Amino acid sequence: MGTEFKESIQKAVNNANLTGALGKFSEAYKVNRAKAYEGIDFEELRGRIAELKSYAASNLEMLSEQFTRNAEACGAKVFRTNDPARVREYILKVAQDNGVTTVVKSKSMATEEIHLNPFLEKAGISVGETDLGEWIIQLAGQTPSHMVMPAIHMTKEEVSDLFSKEVNERLTSDIPRLVRVARNELRPRFLEADMGISGGNIAVAETGSIVLMTNEGNARLVTSLPKIHIALIGIEKLIANYADIATILKALPRSATAQLLTSYVSIITGPTPNTDGSMKDLHIILMDNRRSEMAADPKFRQALQCIRCASCLNVCPIFRLVGGHVFGKVYTGGIGTILTAWFDELKKSEDIQGLCIQCGTCRDVCPGKIDIPELIMEIRRRLVLEQGLPLLQQAIYSVVNNRTLFHGMLRAAALAGKPFTTGKFVRHLPLFLADLTDGRSLPAIAAEPFRDRIKGIKQPKCKEKAAFYSGCLIDFAYPEMGEALVKILNKAGIEVLFPLDQTCCGAPARYNGAYEVAAGNAVDNIRALLSEDVQYVISACPTCTVALDHEFISTFESLGLTEWIAKARELAGKTVDFSTLVKKLVDKGRLSLKDGNILGKITYHDSCHLKRTLKVSEQPRELLQKAGYELTEMFECDICCGMGGSYSLKLPEISAPILQRKLKNIKETGAPVVAMDCPGCVMQIRGGMDQDGANVNVRHTVELLAEQLRE
Amino acid sequence: MLYQQFKMRAEGVSAEVYRYATGDAALSGLIEFLQREGLADKPCASALWADCSFLAGFDRNALKMIAGLKFEVTRELASEARFGISQMEWALADTGSLVQNSTAIAQRLVSSLPTIHIALLPTSNILPDMPALLSRINPKESAYIAMITGPSRTADIERVLTIGVHGPERLVIFCVDGLGGTN
Question: Does CATH number 3.30.930.10 belong to domain B2-176?
Answer without folding.
Answer: no
